[in-house]
Amino acid sequence: MDRQQIEAAFSPPFEIIGPRRPQSPLIFNAPHSGRVYPKAFQERSCLGGKALRRSEDAFVDELFAPAAASATLLCARFPRAFLDVNREPYELDPALIEGSLPETANTGSQSVAFGLGTVPRIVAEGMSIYAGKLSLSEVEHRLDCLYHPYHRRLAELIETTQGRFGHAVLIDCHSMPSARSLGGAASRPDFIIGDMNGKSCDKRLSDAAERCLSARGYAVTRNNPYAGGYITRNYGQPHNGVHTLQIEINRALYMNERAIVKHQGFVHLAESLKDFIAEMQDIAWQIGDQGRIAAE
What we know:
By secondary structure, the protein is α/β, with parallel strands linked by helices. 35% of the residues lie in helices and 16% in strands. Strands 1-3-2-6-9-7-8 form a seven-stranded mixed β-sheet. A hairpin with a 4-residue loop joins strand 10 (255-256) and strand 11 (261-262). Helix 7 runs antiparallel to helix 9 (265-295). The longest helix is centred in the last third of the chain and has 31 residues, at 265-295.
């Protein structure tokens, strides 16, 4: 897809939901719940519709929609299979992109090795998205039209929130397959809390998240295998008053993973997440109060 096609297909490239003047230092981010699959992208792919959606964090934006009553919710409209904003801007895959890559490209990351760079080569279960390679210009169009605007807006939201409240708390919202493969036996916990092994936020935020979800009967672990992606790592600077926490939700709790449709568990989970959002709001204020006291 060229620049004009991308701009036309993803207009706007993301949505910002919430009050004009947020009443909370919280920002919720759903970077992988985008579900706009342009015809030109589908025709370029060698996968069918449902297979192409395997990497999508389906319905995560809806699960966290109640947060927008007082906080800000940022949601991508473009799908993760098209562009992944939870990667470095030039985390590029030589196996996907023809020709020479920029010297600044990170071609040796674990994500690139798995085929899951900024422009993914595969979706879940290792299925190739494309029959051939992409040109570097195609990749740069995606970065210019979608990646950079998304991160500029996220950075602006954090800066504005911190300017208003003295600090900002970013919750990066994701979902994960219930097992390493849909036919696999190794199941995952209900939630995984990621804080870059304690580096991306005040420990009280991680503790409160785990405590809140565990109290509602969910199996919760931390940082394994998801400690946080680029967003958590890049924006989490607790020493500068910006705290980030990644949350991964087991898709089996709320959806049929093969059909990509909600099941009866969606409503129960949504109610639990309302409590989680309220708990995060309470602890976000406490972190800010403590920070001001320490500064004084």
